[in-house]
């Protein structure tokens, strides 16, 4: 019985681990898809809608642990840095939203292109 319980516990742990991976991967897919849509948008409404979806996914992802950091404490330097990267992205999204709200769509798109640098930097560390 003890062996069966251990096997069941291990299976449950692996299942939860793969669910967490799927969730963060889903968030990253949402961010990537909407990033492409935002850059292709030809009006402020479509641009802002894409950014809103990106922001929601970034906020959701910020609360999760990337697979590479599994087992790290919530207050570890790595987790703080991961959340800092998400905060940078969220701030950039907010800045682009503000420009779009002011009717400066091209300026907002120029700023949005900088999201890629943030992504590249933090993907190197936590992907």
Structural commentary:
The longest helix is centred in the N-terminal third of the chain and has 39 residues, at 2-40. Helices cover 82% and strands 0% of the residues. The chain has 127 residues and is mostly helical.
List keywords for this structure.
heme binding, mainly alpha, electron transfer activity, Four Helix Bundle (Hemerythrin (Met), subunit A), 0% strand, Cytochrome b562, 127 residues, heme, 5 helices
N-to-C CA distance: 39 Å
Largest sheet descriptor: none
- The helicity comes to over 70%
Topology-level CATH name: Four Helix Bundle (Hemerythrin (Met), subunit A)
Q: Which sequence of SSEs, written as H and E, runs from N to C?
A: HHHHH
- pLDDT < 50 runs, ≥5 residues: 13-21
Rg calc: 18 Å
- Shape annotation: elongated
CATH architecture label name: Up-down Bundle
Looking at CATH, the homologous superfamily is Cytochrome c/b562
InterPro entries: Cyt_b562, Cyt_c/b562
Binding site for heme b: 28, 123
GO molecular function: electron transfer activity; heme binding; iron ion binding
Keywords: Heme, Iron, Metal-binding, Signal
């Amino acid at each position: 019985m003890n062996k069966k319980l251990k096997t069941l516990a291990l299976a449950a742990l692996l299942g939860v681990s793969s669910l967490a991976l799927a969730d963060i991967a889903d968030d990253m897919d949402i961010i990537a898809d909407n990033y492409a849509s935002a850059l292709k948008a030809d009006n402020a409404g479509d641009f802002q809608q894409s950014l809103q979806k990106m922001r929601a996914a970034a906020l959701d992802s910020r609360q999760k642990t990337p697979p590479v950091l599994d087992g790290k404490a919530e207050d570890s330097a790595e987790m703080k840095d991961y959340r800092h990267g998400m905060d940078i992205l969220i701030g950039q999204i907010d800045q682009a939203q503000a420009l779009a709200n002011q009717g400066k769509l091209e300026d907002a798109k120029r700023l949005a292109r900088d999201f890629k640098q943030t992504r590249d930097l933090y993907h190197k560390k936590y992907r």
